[in-house]
Amino acid sequence: VTTIAVNNNMGYELAYNITAAFWNNFPSIRREVVELDEAGEPFAGVTMRLHPGALKYFEFNGYKVPQNIR
């Protein structure tokens, strides 16, 4: 599970950009961080709602976001 928790007051664009930076670069990050070798499913084990900016990133990129974390 890879989760970054943020405050509700974080700006929409900032949350989108952080999410994009992580997931767009995930292949190279995974090569450097051995613990992420088995990761890849962004919603595995996630139980809290996504920030609207993060949600927009995942929807825009075609991920099926589970209803309980929207």
Characterization of the model:
The chain is mainly α and 70 residues long. It contains 3 helices and no strands. It has helices at residues 12-24, 26-32, 52-60. Helix 1 packs across helix 3. The two termini are 17 Å apart. The mean pLDDT is 88.
Task: Give me the secondary-structure topology.
Blueprint: H1 12-24, H2 26-32, H3 52-60
Spatial extent as radius of gyration: 12 Å
Task: Tell me about the largest β-sheet.
Answer: none
Share of helical residues: 40-55%
Shape: globular
Structural class computed from helices and strand pairing: mainly alpha
| Strand percent estimate | under 5%
How many strands appear in the DSSP assignment?
0
Mean pLDDT: 88
N-to-C span: 17 Å
What are the segments in which pLDDT stays under 50 over at least 5 consecutive residues?
none
- N-to-C SSE series? HHH
